[in-house]
Each structure stands twice: as C-alpha cells, then as structure tokens.
Amino acid sequence: MLIRKQRGWEIPEMRATPEALFWRRREVLVGLGLGGAMLLTRPGRARAVAADDPSGTLYPFPRNERYQLDRALTDPDVASRYNNFYEFGSHKEIWEAAQTLVIRPWEIRIDGMVEKEMTIAIDDLLAKMPREERLYRHRCVEAWAMAVPWSGFPMAELVKLARPLGSATYVRMETFLDPDAAPGQRQVWYPWPYVESVTIAEAMNELAFLVSGVYGKPLPRQHGAPLRLVLPWKYGFKSIKSIVRISFTDQRPVSFWEEIQGSEYGFWANVNPEVAHPRWSQASEALIGTSERVPTQLYNGYGDYVAALYAGMEGEGERLFM
Ligand SMILES: Nc1nc2c(c(=O)[nH]1)N[C@H]1C(S)=C(S)[C@@H](COP(=O)(O)O)O[C@H]1N2
Ligand SMILES: [Mo]
C-alpha cells in the first residue's frame, strides 16, 4: 500500500472523493472479490520515455504583460509535483507515473459542426498559432491554488482555425484514451476518456488559453502535455489536459466530473467564494508550497474579463458556480 505524506494544504483524500464515486468504486471492487483496501491501483514504476520534444526550440514565448498576478509565482518544483491527472492515479503524486505518456506523434482531431473537419499534428498547430506567455492564477475546486507562467495561444485562434458553423454553440474536448500508458484508465468506475466543454462564447473569451508550455519550457507530461486548456476563472477541473479531440456541437456535452457527480461538479464551475462545495467551504484557498491561505475571489479575480458572459443566466436556473 502506498503511504503518502499529507501536506498542510491538502484536503484529506476521503473528503475529496465524491460519494457516488466512492460507492461505484466499492461496487466494482466487491464485484471482483477485492473488497479490501489493497488494489487501488498504484501506477507502475515510472518508465521515462525519452522522446525529444521537437517544440523545445520555440520557447520561451514572449510574455503578454496584460495579465498580472497579485501573488508570487508558485515554485516550479512544487507545481510539477502536485498534480491532478486521474489518468495516472487518483491522488496528487502522479508526476513519475505520467512519464509513460508518449507525446509524439500527437494529432488533434477537429470535428463536428465545422466547415471542414481536420486532423492536425501538434507541431503544425503550434507553428501556426500566435504564441505568448501569460501569468495566471489557478484555483482547484479542492481549495488549493497556484500561480504559474503558461505558454500557449488564445483558444479564440483555434476556434477561428476550426471555422465552426453558425449553429454550433459548444466546444467539447477529449483527453487521450490509452490504458497501457495511463493505468488510471483501467479504473472502470470512471467514465473515460476525460471530457470537458465550454460554450463557444467562453472559448472566444480572451482569457481562454490553450497551453503547450509552462515556466518557459514545453509542458511536462504531468501538467497535460502536449496541449491542455487553461480557464483561470473556473475551477481547475475544467482545464482539460492532453487533448486529442476538439468537437463543435449544438448539444451541451456532459463533462467527466459532471457525469461522476453532477450535484458537486457542474457545467459552468465558475469560481465563487460564497458558494460552498457541498462538502467544504470555497471561501479561501491554500497556496501550494507555502503555509499561506488567501481569500478566494469571485471568478478567481477575473470578473472584469468574464462576468458579462453570464449576465442574466442565473435567472434561467443555471448553476453558475459549481
Ligand atoms: N485529462 C485530465 N485533465 C485534467 C485533470 C485530470 O484528472 N485529467 N484534472 C483537472 C484538475 S482537477 C486540475 S486542478 C488541473 C490540475 O492541473 P495541474 O496538475 O497542471 O496543476 O487539471 C485538470 N485537468
Ligand atoms: Mo482540480
């Protein structure tokens, strides 16, 4: 059994696991005759894949000074060793296990309600896009936060490249599916592959950022290489990692966490300190790698950019903040 140290800023895993998931996992284990504690997959020893990342020469990307922080950057070693990436395990210490992810060749399928469906290799995509670095805050729904310099390009540019039909209203994104590389995907009580979605209006918002690097270098696998989303005004689970498919649709997709427990993890998931998670307060957040806690801000402090997206929607019965 893997024993892990709990850091001061962590919510105990028991409390962070949605109840529905706890029971689904239990059913599966009992069904297999493995009611005991042992199985909960310890990912295999890290097998480092030494694939050269051909995008390395593109870095660093020029910084866009428009996005400023109110706090110090997180220590890069802390940010890259405390990750949520359930494909490699349902705890934070997955960084070694994630090294099995093969990130080249890597293609992204763009399909659904677009003028012309296409498949594009990550390096061709990066070559085409206007690349920049941005300092953003990140707020996980588990009440921890970090601040990092992401390298990427505006999601709006991807939408322009895809040329969606006027009738499309949502963007649905999907993570790779490869249980051999990602043993967490053998945990059949999760609805793999990981799926997330935003409205096209959200995707076009200037803050929505598709990210290929961090701290001036290509993304380490544990951060979601080679391409992940970053939506700094929403809880972190919306920021889907290691994207292989981007689809345009007029039906609201159901995301991974919404399917697991929609009462706790909804479609909108905008940060709001006044709307508690059913099992813990969202009023403040722990800054990982420090002993500091700071008050959480509405839209994670990005209201000037995004509040207008949601004007009047609460009246329509939308749960904007979970
Ligand atoms: N495919 C995938 N994307 C994911 C996750 C995941 O488990 N799988 N976890 C999400 C959550 S809950 C958070 S907080 C962030 C964490 O990003 P980081 O590990 O780079 O800090 O990734 C998000 N994207
Ligand atoms: Mo998260």
Write structural notes for this entry:
The chain has 322 residues and is α+β, with helices and mostly antiparallel strands. It has two domains: 18-47, no CATH class; 49-309, Alpha-Beta Complex (Sulfite Oxidase, Chain A, domain 2), CATH 3.90.420. The chain has eight helices and twelve strands. Strands 3, 4, 7, 8, 9, 11 and 12 form a seven-stranded mixed beta sheet that branches. The protein has a five-stranded mixed beta sheet with strand order 2-1-10-5-6. Strand 1 and strand 2 (118-121) form a beta hairpin. The longest helix is centred in the first third of the chain and has 13 residues, at 19-31. The ligand Nc1nc2c(c(=O)[nH]1)N[C@H]1C(S)=C(S)[C@@H](COP(=O)(O)O)O[C@H]1N2 binds at residues 83-87, 140, 175, 194, 223-224, 236-237, 239-242.
